Amino acid sequence: METILCVVVGLFFAASIYLMLSPHLIRILLGVAIFGNAVNLLIFTSGRLTAAVPPVLSDHGPPTLQTVEGERVIGMTDGGPVAGHGAPVVADGAPGVADSTQAAADAVTPATQVAADAAAHTGAAANAAADAAAHTANAAANASSAALDAALSVTANPLPQALILTAIVISFSIFAFLLVLTFRAYQSLETDNVDDMRLAEPSPTVPPLGY
Amino acid sequence: MPHRLLPVLLALFIPSLAVAAPSGGEVDRSVAMFEGATGLIPWLVVLPILMPLIGAGLSLTVRSRSSVQHRIAFVALLFGAIAALALFLQVSANGPLTMVAGNWLPPFGIVMAVDPFGALLVLVTALVGLAGLAYARGDVDEAGTHFGFYTFYCLLIAGVTGAFSTGDIFNLYVWFEVFLVSSFGLIVLGGRRVQLDGAVKYGVLNLIATTIFLIAVGVLYGFTGTLNMADIHLVVAELDGAPIVTVGAMFVMAFAMKAAAIPLHFWLPASYHTPKVIVSALFAGLLTKVGIYSLMRVMIMLFADQGSMFIPIIGWLGVITAIFGAVGALAQVDLKRMAAFLVVSGVGVMLIGLGYGTEAGLTGAIVYAVHSILAMTAIFLVLGYAQRLSGVTHLTTGTNLYAVHGLAATLFLVFGFAAAGLPPFSGFWPKLMLVEAGYQTGDVFGIAGIVGIILSGLFTTIAIGRAWVLVYLRPPQEDGVPDPEPTLEPGASTRPFALALVALAALIVAMGLFPSTVIDAARSGAQGLLDPAAYLERVLKVE
Hints:
The complex is a heterodimer of chains A (211) and B (543).
Chain A: H1 2-20, H2 25-46, E1 63-68, E2 71-76, E3 81-83, H3 95-106, H4 110-120, H5 124-134, H6 137-154, H7 158-189
Antiparallel strand pairs in A: 1-2, 2-3
Chain B: H1 2-13, H2 15-20, H3 43-61, H4 66-94, E1 97-100, E2 111-114, H5 116-139, H6 142-146, H7 149-165, H8 169-187, H9 193-224, H10 229-238, H11 241-259, H12 267-271, H13 277-302, H14 310-330, H15 335-356, H16 359-390, H17 401-404, H18 406-420, H19 428-441, H20 444-473, H21 495-513, H22 516-530, H23 533-540
Antiparallel strand pairs in B: 1-2
Helix pairs in contact in B: 3-4, 3-7, 4-5, 4-7, 5-7, 5-13, 5-16, 5-21, 5-22, 7-8, 7-13, 8-9, 8-13, 9-11, 11-13, 13-15, 13-16, 14-15, 14-20, 15-16, 15-19, 15-20, 16-18, 16-19, 16-21, 16-22, 18-20, 18-21, 19-20
């Protein structure tokens, strides 16, 4: 998947650079738009691409994608499916259940805590929390540390996606501004060819050579 | 409506309280977050950014009343400058100061971190912002105010200050965009045809530069897995060379484009002379220096030894830029285009200092950056003032302005000689330090750097002297490029212009006569870049 996207990103860059080399403003702008998308895809790819495995951890390691009775569900590495129907419930999960999971994850890194938070919101919470409560803080730390390493190999990194979100907002608004600017420039300068836009850069005159 | 604003302002000022408040369960957050509220001193880090941001927001709410807007912007920037001064004193005395967003422990949260280098530039930015605001009172008309001049102005100051204060590389990109967007607003304000022409070139090329910067940040994150500058410094030291070649090349390309190093400078002389003079002055003073700052921060501090392959490249770029920037200034007829090429030439001098890569070279470059912020702003302002008084825009028109308005003519010579590096003005010391640093390196590039600095100074002196003689001493000429009419209405006060110019001249002369404060601050800034131990300790500390 990464390889395919790398090729796509390369094609995007090639197309955008080709378009930006044109003297016509509208082509330059199209090039700029594709350029921005190429960058976003690039950053997206750098955060690993995995299908449908959320960054959720328990003491038993990262979740895996399993097929149970013809239906894709998220299961834990120790076997049995614990969370049916994938999608985590996005709501504040019952805090009492969540606490022990969090306490276990807290001992390691904030990154795992984020994961544990998410875990607490799924149906996995009940199982995971009960398990976690049985462990001492130390054991939990070791398990979670190993779990973190394992998790890094199968889950996607959410941070690049947050970066892209910022970059998309910025590049889109600037693109909108440039579009309007170009249109105004086309209206008042009566050309969209940058070679003919010489108002700010008139052909050189020789400065006075004497007093 | 103060009673409605109060909760908003409170929330703005005390987000740490909101975080520290109990949020339901008995969760132990100490492994991931700072406990409790942030102390008062760290607030100094963000106050110079917050104040202009608040000023921008408030002036937007009263956009139809121009005098109120000016006052709001003035108060905001004044408080920002006071905070910047306090920050500078604090950092000079106690070393780098940090504040983390959302109380996340580093390296996970976005951290604002100011070291002596950043603090010095934050202070100069705030001072120039205030001086420019005084000039703006005379320069910006009712329509300009109505379309948000003061909002964009405050946002620009906030963006530049933010870029100087952040300790997170993606956050640096965001601040780049903040001042880029506000500079778009400023450059088209007025909407004359020549402005649209300049703005198109400025907009497209700068957008491409920041996008290349974004690519570099994305790829760097892919290799290091962190965005925190202190953390990047540690992780990059462990990497083997190959990834850094790619990432470093993109950083050099992006920042050299933002700094307008030849041959990536074309957008600058194509656009800087088109907008209102106060806007040109602010751009000339501040924006290219952000490129220089970022180049130093990334190449010297973040990449350290890994970036050493790029240092000579940057240095040679600097030699070319310093010489040909000044040659470009000699070739211009339009006065403001001449000043734009002087900006480019100054960028070259700073890049030479960066190219030496030694403590002496970096110190000289930082002092030159401070000088250049002051002198370039001042040159554009004094040219704008002369244009208001006499309509002069070109070398071919004599005005005999010295006889009519001695202050404007004299100050042009002061600022010009400062830019050329003649004593007793601010440009002399950094150039002397850079020549000394080049002499100490003792290799071919050291000599080339010295030649570049001296030639750029010589050509700048010729360009300034010629402009002085042709424009300010010569009586009006029959032939030559016709100038527009003077735009200063008869009877209008010249006080705002004079105030700003005299303030800048005082700073420039003070820096020329008593340079030790700036040099000391710059030296500890350079030491901090070369050996960021104190910075790392402050940023990555776990309480």
